[in-house]
Write a structure and sequence with these properties.
about 140 residues, mainly alpha
Length: about 140
């Protein structure tokens, strides 16, 4: 299930990047989208791999996603609701640090909960931003 969620998330993020090549955060977002797809495929293909392997992959994903959203948040600073995007990035970084601190005690459900939190918060922040910008145009 986590693998499919990451693959779908990465594809949707990649589709959202179409036509955004000149945006300053483009490469971070592209790396994040590709990483989500790769991690999703690894989860589906190597179900027998250890939790430490998947935990490190998720840690890298959370950190890259967090840094990308922080940069994006500061880039769009004059737009309304930019703070929510910044918050989602800071949360991604915090989840990566939490995962790093608890690397030896990570379980499958913990990775699922952390990924769910990140995806819900990012989705809400980006939807809120898009809705607000659309209303003001």
């Amino acid at each position: 299930m986590l693998g499919w969620l990451l693959i779908i998330s990465g594809i949707l993020q990649g589709v959202g990047l179409i036509g955004a090549r000149e945006v300053p955060y483009f490469w971070f977002e592209l790396i994040s989208a590709v990483l989500a797809i790769v991690i999703g495929l690894l989860l589906l293909r190597h179900t027998d791999a250890g939790m430490l392997f998947f935990s490190v992959l998720f840690l890298i994903y959370f950190m890259i996603e967090g840094v990308a959203k922080v940069i994006f948040g500061f880039t769009i600073r004059p737009f309304p609701n930019w703070g929510w995007v910044l918050f989602s990035g800071l949360l991604g970084i915090a989840l990566a640090l939490y995962l790093w601190a608890n690397l030896s005690t990570v379980s499958e459900w913990m990775l699922g909960v952390l990924l769910g939190i990140l995806l819900v918060v990012e989705g809400t922040a980006l939807s809120s931003l898009a809705w607000r910008v659309r209303r003001e145009i």
